[in-house]
Amino acid sequence: GCNGNGAAAAAGVVPEIKFTKLFINGEFVDAVSGKTFETRDPRTGAVLAHVAEADKADVDLGVKAARDAFDHGKWPRMSGYERGRLLSKFADLVDQHTEELAALDGADAGKLLLVGKVIDVPSATQMLRYYAGAADKIHGEVLRVSGKYQGYSLREPVGVAGVIIPWNFPTMMFFLKVSPALAAGCTVVVKPAEQTPLSALYYAHLAKLAGVPDGVINVVPGFGHTAGAAITSHMDVDTVAFTGSTEVGRLIMESAARSNLKPVSLELGGKSPLIIFDDADVDMAVNLSRLAIFFNKGEICAAGSRVYVQEGIYDEFVKKAVEAAQNWKVGDPFDVTTNMGPQVDKEQFEKVLKYIEHGKSEGATLLTGGKPAAAKGYYIEPTIFVDVTIAQEEIFGPVMALMKFKTVDEVIEKANCTRYGLVAGIVTKSLDVANRVSRAVRAGTVWVNCYFVFDPDAPFGGFKMSGFGQDQGLGAMDKFLQVKSVITALPDSPW
Ligand code: ADP
């Protein structure tokens, strides 16, 4: 249970770390090279664990295990119902370890423990159960074929799926990709981010306990240019599902094209607009805008980093937004009163501070924040800029760019003036404005009078350079399925 005086009780809490080796073919093993890498606690910068470091040789072993499990094993051959039952059992085991898993991500990524318990882990198991329930509902079609033939289509698992995920939501990202892949009957080789490898290893262990056969899930922690690149260029990997930066998404596509032309799905960066109209309830809009950029320290591809406020409420909004930012408590993520923990690592911490300096030198006005929020650890103050002329770069930190607009047409144009197109937010009481902007904005998800509402049944993915190949929804299984047409002659048909 949680206690009231979190700060004192929580300081320095580190969960026991049980799994630090690679998970290949149902076993925890050392890297072929024997190498390990450090994962650090962003609250202090201290080493949290030494984790086996996968490189090409380990990825080869992981892919071989996944290949064998796919080509010769039970997983793709058992009924969808049986696969679904095992996945449901897996979900139950994850739920039973919620507290521990939330703590693991908390220490590894600086994420709020409480949020992990009530959002990250439960949403992940909801996702897993959604696809568990879909495993026995994979249908083909009956085809009209001209002449004396009949046809039908089958949707078959594509094979070995490479899964490469980022560090901002280690648990949700794992299940976002792995759940539909496994439900479809694929086997997977997962490379968690080097900053946050711990929970993925735990999930591999729980899947085994649930009865998922060996080789179906393999986890190979390591770095992107080594382990990650070995997956994307592998001739025996049949598809790659990726979430991360646009730069790396481009590398992944190139590598897939140069090797075996494996299809890829990319969920990439964003610079998403949140548009607040004059008729909005200002307090509610301020709260939404604060959530949209400061939740999870701004380390969210879907963060509402460009906030457009209509001129009639602009001054009031700015005043209240600054107060709200100053009331957003930065501190130990294990303290239940904290709103925002540290950035994930030193590199991100320094990168965000550099963007802030850059903003100042470009002539933007800093209204609040802009500095480290503590003497140690990677904490940054909630930061708000106004008079921003160019808001194009994804900062991936707690930095809001606030801008004023006059008309609906003007703000639609500004909102779309980005190479990204992941999400957009709209705050208005007018149905006509909400409808018009929802349709005009070029983004994969639009939130009206809400923000960060994710659901397993709501497709999520980008327009433009935010990527393609959506997550969530039944359609997400298409990435892991391929269609086969079977056409049969009917020589004796009177037709
Ligand atoms: P972020 O900017 O959020 O750190 P990245 O795109 O750098 O996102 O990383 C997301 C994931 O992609 C991580 O697991 C990382 O190790 C991996 N990655 C980075 N570079 C490559 C690469 N060249 N090939 C494959 N995976 C990579």
Structural class: alpha/beta
Distinct ligand kinds: adenosine-5'-diphosphate
User: Uncertain spans, ≥5 residues at pLDDT below 50?
Assistant: 1-11
**Helix amount:** 25-40%
DSSP summary, beta strand count: 20
Shape: globular
Termini separation comes to: 71 Å
**Rg of Cα set:** 24 Å
On the 0-100 scale, what is the average pLDDT?
Answer: 95
* Total helical segments: 14
Estimated share of beta-strand residues: 15-25%
Write out the strand line-up for the largest beta sheet, numbering strands in chain order.
14-15-16-13-12-17-18
Oligomer: single chain
Largest sheet: 7 strands, mixed
For the structure shown, list the relevant keywords:
seven-stranded mixed beta sheet, 14 helices, six-stranded mixed beta sheet, Aldehyde dehydrogenase domain-containing protein, Aldehyde_DH_dom, globular, binds adenosine-5'-diphosphate, alpha/beta, single chain, Ald_DH_N, disordered N terminus, Ald_DH/histidinol_DH, 495 residues
